[in-house]
Amino acid sequence: MLTTLAVKTASGGLFSKLKTGASKLISSAAKMSLQAKYETLAVTVPHEFVYHVELNRPEKLNAMSKTMWFEIGKCFETLDSDENCRVVVLSGAGKVFTAGLDLKDAMDMAPELAEQEDVARKAKIVVAKLRGYQKSLTAIELCKKPVVAAVHSACIGGGVDLIAATDMRYCSKDAWFQVKEVDIGMAADVGTLQRLPKIIGSDSWAREVCYTARKVQAPEALSSGLVSRVFEDKESLIKGAIDIAQDIAKKSPVAVQGTKVSLVYARDHSVQDGLNQIAVWNQLMLQSEDFTNAVVAQATKQKDVVFSKL
């Protein structure tokens, strides 16, 4: 009991220093272990509960290779169940966010198709590949942790598919966006056509940029609702994204994750379906300690409430 009391009342002393030191060690270990998992992504932990995922093929302008597609899915499936992760910032290393699909890598499917003469059998191969790519990006949407996209310079083709699956989108002044697929003779097939009109709210604008493959510069991206903030440069963009991520990470993970689940569900269902979903969800979650602790903190004007990992 005395030990517990001492721990609870300690502030600014030895306990605080030990806690800070332990957090740094844990953070460093997490960075090293996560970094080793991926060939095309760099995953770091800039602050407690905030993870930073970077597309990490700068020498290839972060072109989305087959390996990157599937590592994105694996990464966000892992972060979904990681109790140390509450918010994710998604950005691109190097000069651009992403140049889109790695066409050279995509052609690897050609020999496999050439082995088949029948169109139905070729189609079976293609649809399996497409569903795999779709699943990888949908993992971002299904990840219960909010994902903040931080886009600088070019975001082309598959990059738009990618950010359309995130929760919030910020960009730098030099950012531009392009639904490029019609220029290479195909319809976008990994999420842009399904998610972009719902993000923007203007079906006409979404159709225009998808039919024409024209570039959308940062000011238009902001006015259209594709992004919600524009920063001066990449450095301030990443800082701003991490700052908002830190703010979210301080909130109850039960509340934040429940909010994301409900928002994603409500987008694709009727209002009544959404109301039913959140009623079922909250009949359990309102019994969580997070709800009690947050209400007491608000009533007593307590700041910096510490919520348990989830």
At a glance:
Belongs to the enoyl-CoA hydratase/isomerase family. Helix content is 54%, strand content 13%.
Structure description:
The structure is a single chain. The protein is globular. The chain has 2 domains: 10-250, 2-enoyl-CoA Hydratase, Chain A, domain 1 (Alpha-Beta Complex); 252-310, Lyase 2-enoyl-coa Hydratase, Chain  A, domain 2 (Orthogonal Bundle), CATH 1.10.12. Helix content is 54%, strand content 13%. It is built from 14 helices and 9 strands. Strand 1 (41-47) and strand 2 form a beta hairpin. Helix 3 packs parallel to helix 6 (119-142). Mean pLDDT is 89; it is low at 1-33. It has 310 residues and is α/β, with parallel strands linked by helices. The strands form 2 sheets. The chain has a 6-stranded mixed beta sheet, sandwiched between helices. Strands 5-7-8 form a 3-stranded mixed beta sheet. Isomerization of 3-trans,5-cis-dienoyl-CoA to 2-trans,4-trans-dienoyl-CoA. GO terms for molecular function: delta(3,5)-delta(2,4)-dienoyl-CoA isomerase activity. Keywords: Acetylation, Fatty acid metabolism, Isomerase, Lipid metabolism, Peroxisome. This is Delta(3,5)-Delta(2,4)-dienoyl-CoA isomerase, mitochondrial. One of its GO terms (biological process) is fatty acid metabolic process.
